[in-house]
Design brief:
By secondary structure, the chain is of the alpha+beta class. It has a single domain (37-184), classed as tt1808, chain A (Alpha-Beta Complex), CATH 3.90.1570.10. Helices cover 23% and strands 25% of the residues. The protein has helices at 13-18, 41-58, 120-132, 179-184; strands spanning 3-5, 26-29, 32-35, 64-68, 72-74, 77-79, 83-87, 109-113, 137-142, 147-151, 158-161. The strands form three sheets. It has a six-stranded mixed beta sheet with strand order 4-7-8-9-10-11, sandwiched between helices. A three-stranded antiparallel beta sheet has the order 1-3-2, with no helix packed on it. β10 and β11 form a beta hairpin. The longest helix has 18 residues, at 41-58.
């Protein structure tokens, strides 16, 4: 369950970004601060293993990179997706070719993994917000139900489960897996 952090009055995005980071991370929208849930076992395992799987396919050929818990601040909000994937040319770099600390753009692909008591409504709101800001693909992963709700711009969401093939970014066409393959990552 995402917790609203009460503040005496609404604050600006700039004021929010000056606050110290929290653990788990807090997100900002509509002048309010919301603290994310602390990841539990299935959430943490899927997040770590799937981000690694994306990077195995995307990093060496410089196609895309998956970041876990990366703060992205754009269009008046500051969000921290479970996994934010950026196509290589869009990764913010400084003049020395090093990664920037601040990402002020929406990810190309946002992946959110539901925790047991988390509100799916707030997570869907975050995915839809990203799609409105040029995100190409969104996933809402439900480890308990073993399904993925796929979001694409200007399309109805689709539920993928079992052997349904999961769509990925075009640049990551080498990453082919079904919903069942994704949830196999939970097994030890």
């Amino acid at each position: 369950m995402v917790m609203l952090i009460q503040s005496p009055s609404k604050i600006s995005l700039e004021e929010f970004l000056l606050l110290p980071e929290t653990e788990p991370p807090s997100e900002y929208f509509d002048g309010q601060i919301y603290q994310k849930d602390m990841p539990q076992g299935k959430h943490s395992t899927l997040q770590t293993r799937f981000a690694n799987r994306i990077n195995q396919v995307g990093e060496l050929p410089k196609l895309a990179f998956a970041f876990s818990e990366l703060r992205c601040s754009f269009d008046g909000r500051s969000i921290v997706p479970d996994i934010a994937v950026f196509e290589w040319p869009r990764i913010p770099l400084n003049s020395q070719g090093e990664i920037e600390n601040r990402f002020e753009i929406a990810p190309d692909w946002i992946i959110e993994i539901l925790s047991p008591d988390q509100s799916s409504t707030r997570v869907i709101n975050k995915i839809l917000f990203c799609l409105k800001n040029n995100t190409k693909l969104g996933w809402l992963v439900d480890p308990e139900e073993k399904l993925v709700i796929v979001f694409k711009p200007q399309q109805q969401p689709e539920i993928k489960e079992n052997e349904d093939v999961l769509p990925v970014l075009d640049v990551l066409s080498g990453l082919q897996l079904s919903a069942a393959n994704l949830f196999e990552l939970l097994k030890f």
